[in-house]
Write a structure and sequence with these properties.
single chain; 75 residues; alpha+beta; two-stranded antiparallel ribbon; globular
Length: 75
């Protein structure tokens, strides 16, 4: 799985860091740091975090055969 965050859209709500702390974390009050290739074990957490982003700044690409990108999926 590959994660890309549009940092120009991210407004630091930190919903992703709350839902998937192993993949997303806040550095200070506004800077988001994230793992661009989280383990497949964390897939459900990462997908929930992407879906919860208020500004839809997180895109999750999954290997072929594993489903559509998170922004196209319904929770």
């Amino acid at each position: 799985m590959r994660v890309v965050v549009d940092l120009s859209r991210c407004e630091g709500y930190a919903q992703c860091a709350f839902l998937a702390p192993e993949a997303f974390r806040m550095h200070g009050e506004e800077a988001l740091m994230y793992d661009p290739n989280p383990d497949d074990v964390r897939r459900d957490q990462v997908l929930r975090a992407a879906a919860a982003c208020p500004v839809q700044a997180i895109l999750v690409d999954q290997p072929e055969g594993r489903g559509a990108p998170a922004e196209a999926s319904t929770p």
